[in-house]
Amino acid sequence: MLYAQPVSAQEKRGVIPHAPLLKTAVPNTANQEVAVYHVEYEPGGINPRHLHPAAITFHILSGTAVFQEEGKPAVTLRAGDSLFVPAGTIHAHWNPSSTESLRFLEFIVAEKDKGRSIPKPLKD
Hints:
The protein is an all-beta fold. It has one domain: Sandwich (Jelly Rolls). The protein has no helices and eleven strands. The strands form two sheets. Strands 1, 4, 6, 7, 9 and 11 form a six-stranded mixed beta sheet that branches. Strands 2-3-10-5-8 form a five-stranded antiparallel beta sheet, with no helix packed on it. The protein starts with 11 loop residues before the first strand and ends in a 5-residue tail after the last strand.
């Protein structure tokens, strides 16, 4: 599956510039936690093909984001839009703008310390 994402000699990856806004145990569970991350992508920033072992909800704060699940058309999200990505879904997301930054929140409920992304190399 080829993605419609930007191609660049120097890939600009999105970054999480600080500790989670919230990271705490989920009450009445053995080993679950909730985490909320503020993510910033500079113009052209990308998180290539990857998956999360937990479901994630993305909420766009500013800018434009393109999300693409493997085997599906790309979806464009703008400030105020949200997207739910089920656990194990292979996807990529990026900032298509050449001038504006992208800011969004990630909401993750997962086994303790197991919610972040896992890179998936492109298929041959």
